[in-house]
Amino acid sequence: MTRVNRDVVVALVLLLFCGVFFWESFNIRLTDFGQMNSAVWPRAVLAALTLASLIYLAQALRGDFRREAEDAESAEGAPKEPGLIAWLASYRNAFYCYGLFLLFLLTLPFFGMLIGGILFVFCALTLLGSMELRLVPIHAAVAAGTVGAMWAIFTFGLRVFLPEGVLISFN
């Protein structure tokens, strides 16, 4: 019998949220602005999230996830006492991402979506990845390519008004 762990509970909660949000998508007001129904994109995103949550649940039930702390405990025998410093160190990357995103939001009025997004992705890749000098051009190319492509799709393809910032104004 499979042991219910945190991953199973999280996957079930995600699936519950997906179900509630899908049910609520029937309350979206229909508009006549285009050829598609106004609920198509929210339901498409929910379908992708539901699929990812189902895969997560299947892996959690199979027991594919291994926690580093459990591996360290089994290797050393006795469990270590977790403290605040150890907890902060174990979630270091998440705190980096939240900090970078906060900086992105604070500088959005100045840099705008395009430059700010490129800087955010570049800093995230450099900070979370390997900080080697030879990888900096690759990080810059990936950041400029992905954010530039998404910016172009939203700006020109979907006609979404994105924040421009002080440095670049297209008006």
Note down, in words, how this protein is organized.
- By secondary structure, the chain is mainly alpha-helical.
- It folds into two domains: 65 residues; 89 residues, no CATH class.
- It is 68% helix and 0% strand.
- The chain is built from six helices and no strands.
- The model has no long low-confidence stretch (mean pLDDT 84).
Question: Summed up, what is this model?
Answer:
This protein has two domains: 1-65; 83-171, no CATH class. With 171 residues, the protein is mainly alpha-helical.
Number of domains: 2
| Residue share in β-strands | under 5%
Report how far apart the termini are: 63 Å
Order of helices and strands: HHHHHH
Note the total helix count.
Answer: 6
Overall spatial form: flat
- Rounded to an integer in angstroms, the radius of gyration calculated over CA atoms is 21 Å
**Largest sheet geometry:** none
